[in-house]
Amino acid sequence: QVQLMQSGAEVKKPGASVKVSCKASGYTFTNYAVHWVRQAPGQSLEWMAWIDPANGNTRYSQHFQGRVTTTRDTSASTAYMDLSSLTSEDTAVYYCGRATSSGSYDYWGQGTLVTVSS
Amino acid sequence: DIVMTQTPLSSPVTLGQPASISCRSSQSLVHSDGNTYLSWLQQRPGQPPRLLIYKISNRLSGVPDRFSGSGAGTEFTLKISRVEAEDVGVYYCMQSTHFPRTFGQGTRVEIK
């Protein structure tokens, strides 16, 4: 069965960086794009980035002003999301999602809570 | 960015009664390929979002047929024909026609 397994919760200090992983199983990793979405406490969802695991092509939300980077390791069927220069406003649950050709996310990771606190 | 506006933000419903959520986009969601990439997601408390409907009206496999989607252009609707207890949660519309992808604010469905 298709699964996206994310790395565990993180606590970071302001100014630090965080790297979240998303390991795919149950399907061919390079056949589907992976998107990253975050959700601050009590808030809606915010799209961050997209990566095509087949060729490494990426696209980012300009709202993050170059602070976000997504990469992949095809040998490990894993996508990664790096977020730098963290502030308290980056405290959120970070999700990866598998994108279908219909543009929707049919499978989601379980979420990774990132807490930024001094 | 495309702004997605949902109404209502909260919907108290009696079990077995219908519920309806509207979603309006600030620009047309018709893609140059002719498709409209509007999805509906359900998020139960403490869980990741779950895809219910894609491209306006297509139910994902396994989604009960009491969920239906409709609309076109900039106006879209999710309907639950008879609300069940397991439908409690927050519902989001999402557009995948334009970058960046954007989501509605969410509509909380709760039982009266």
Give an overview of the whole structure.
The complex is a heterodimer of chains A (118) and B (112). With 118 residues, chain A is mainly beta. Chain A has no helices and eleven strands. The termini of chain A are far apart. In chain B, strands 2, 4, 5, 6, 9, 10 and 11 form a seven-stranded mixed beta sheet that branches. Chain B has a four-stranded antiparallel beta sheet with strand order 1-3-8-7, with no helix packed on it. Classes of the chains: A mainly beta (118), B mainly beta (112). The A-B interface holds A 35, 37, 44-47, 50, 59, 61-63, 95, 97, 99-100, 102-106, 108-111 and B 35, 37, 39, 41, 48-51, 54-55, 58, 60, 92, 94, 96-97, 99-106.
In short:
The complex is a heterodimer of chains A (118) and B (112). In chain A, the strands form 2 sheets. In chain A, strands 2, 4, 5, 6, 9, 10 and 11 form a 7-stranded mixed beta sheet that branches. A 4-stranded antiparallel beta sheet of chain A has the order 1-3-8-7, with no helix packed on it.
Order of helices and strands of chain B: EEEEEEEEEEE
Mean pLDDT of chain A: 97
- H and E string of chain A: EEEEEEEEEEE
What is the number of helices of chain A?
Answer: 0
What percentage of the residues of chain B does DSSP assign to strands (E)? over 45%
Q: How many beta-strand elements of chain A?
A: 11
Taken from the alpha-carbon principal axes, the silhouette of chain B is: globular
Give the end-to-end Cα distance of chain A, rounded to a whole number of Å. 40 Å
